[in-house]
Design a protein that fits this description.
Elements (H helix, E strand, L loop, with lengths): L19 E6 L4 E8 L2 E5 L24 E2 L1 E6 L5 E5 L1 H4 L9 E3 L20 E2 L7 E4 L2 E3 L1 H19 L5 E8 L5 H13 L4 E6 H9 L8 E8 L4 E9 L2 E10 L4 H15 L9 H17 L5 E8 L2 E8 H7 L1 H17 L9 E5 L6 H11 L12 H14 L7 E5 L4 E5 L3 E6 L4 E2 L1 E7 L9 E7 L9 E8 L12 E7 L5 E7 L5 E5 L8 H13 L1 H31 L5 H20 L2 H31 L4 H5 L1
Parallel strand pairs: 1-11, 11-12, 13-18, 15-19
Antiparallel strand pairs: 1-2, 2-3, 2-4, 5-6, 5-7, 8-9, 9-10, 13-14, 14-15, 16-17, 19-22, 20-21, 20-24, 23-26, 24-25, 26-27, 27-28
Length: 642
Amino acid sequence: MSLLQIAEPNQSAKPHAHRYALGIDLGTTRSLVAVVRSGEPQVIGDKVSECQTGKTENGKTGVDCQKLLPSVVYFGKNEQGEDETLVGSHAEAMADKFPQFTVRSVKRFMGRSRQDIKFNHPYQLVGDDNVMPSIATPQGAKNPVEISAIILKHLYDRAKLALPENSIVGAVITVPAYFDEAQRQATKDAANLIGLNVIRLLNEPTADAMAYGLNRHSDQEYHLIYDLGGGTFDVSLLKLNQGVYEVMATGGNSALGGDDIDRLIANYLIKQTGIDPKNVDNQQKQQLNLQARQYKQKLTDNDSVTVDININGVNYQGELNNQIIADVIKPVTDRTLSVCEQVLRDANLTKADLHEVVLVGGSTRMPVIQQLVAKTFDKNPLCRINPDEVVALGASKYADQLISESQNQILLLDVTPLSLGLETMGGLTEVIIPRNTPIPVKRKQVFTTYQDYQNAMIIHVVQGERDTVADNRSLGQFKLTDIPAMKAGLARIEVTFAIDANGQLTVTAQELTTQKHSEIQVKPSYGLSDAEQEKLLQAGFDNAQLDKDNRSLIEAEVEAKRELLAIESALVEFGQLLSKTEQEQLTNAMQNVQQAIEIHDKTTLDKAVADLKVYSDEFASVIMNQAVSQTMTGTTTEQWQS
């Protein structure tokens, strides 16, 4: 039997052509790119042949060909006054001389406003307080998205040199699980700047679990992923069952990591000289941070190291050991364990329920971290894969599955880290999607108008765990217009919150009788700072009873105001049915309610509303009697019975 060719000559698809999807770990201190080739995930950049020839996009030297690319970009001028942009280790080498123009840990600035940035840094920030700032450099102001794009481009170019031409279809980029909508959007914007298609954003702890191939064929297990990197800390509690990865709860701090450990060690060394850290300039602190990092790394394989530093002309020689380090970095480790405990509570689990604790991130190489985690969870943590590479490897495995037609694909169920809702009357927050809800998700709720003949409504979207809008974070707002003119409470406005697989939120409002609708894709110009994230969550627990009482009072006040509006409307139309005395009694009762609303006392308000109800019920009876009388007037017995 012969084969029949049905494609034009030279037009058929090449059977050997491959499509590749990258896994990119855009890290705070180190970044790398991986891909699945011949069925195995591998990091790109370990061979010189896979690296660039030594020129940056502006023709200057500065390409790093190692697996791990330092997430550092230097913006300067050469001797001829031309722009010189260096990336990776070449940029890192400029940090001592030009710390203010050598940008490291840019991930900490992503999606944040200027007023959110409370951590120490040597940069001059440019921009308003309520927008994501830029960093002043000799080449002009550079914003965090632009700087991240330069790092991403370097990784993308690496991959393009290593893989067949035009074979890359996109990338899965990892982000901390606790990145909010603004920080995730900033990451996608950075990729879009260089023309890199983002197939999906993947939470780093989930990528870790995928790299280890946990629970592909076994029964239900719970795994806690402890991810302490250079600048961020993440914890995820995963339920794994037959290849289904369900995130039960997440927690973390997007500004806590190895950089903070370095600063604590550097401050400890400064204090050993008798000098106040406040009297040490930024350039010296930057150098000390680098020295502290070197001492920290040496302690990974040694019990102690000799310290030799010079600060403000004062020499200090001494010794550091892991016991000293454990005490010095306790503020960081205590915060990480506190987050772990909260994540377990959120998932309604205990330490005994955990099957494995997985350590990820370069900072988990520290013996004191490994010992602390082992002691806390009473089990040896899993850390057999290189902690610097595990995130990228897991992302590449997931990326490969997303573009393949494999029948054995992983089902991934992520969650939203904070509750999402909207503002209702009285400044209350109505939660539409509670935190730790699996995504993608879509939720709907119907609302109504507050005033008669109201023809527009402001939809104010907020994020947080408190009952009042003032205590939560505003994400954006939009206006729904052309609502049909009708009495208060009759209109029906359906509000839909939808979060896609990347964590992108879209809010839609629609008036159900006219189908008039409006929507917003929530892309706030800045995100939640680490302190605000912790504050929103913790405040929700600490103020639960206070919020409950406050909400009850506000709801009562809102209902009382609606009652007053309804009575006022009825008086305009039917006031003549009451005697002068009855009108005065009703008006006085209404004034008492208004006064009770103004003093914000629930007991007083309840009594005033109860007193008003006596007169308002009588007024309603009078209106009803007149309506019945008018209906029955002129009707014979025969007509009534027919």
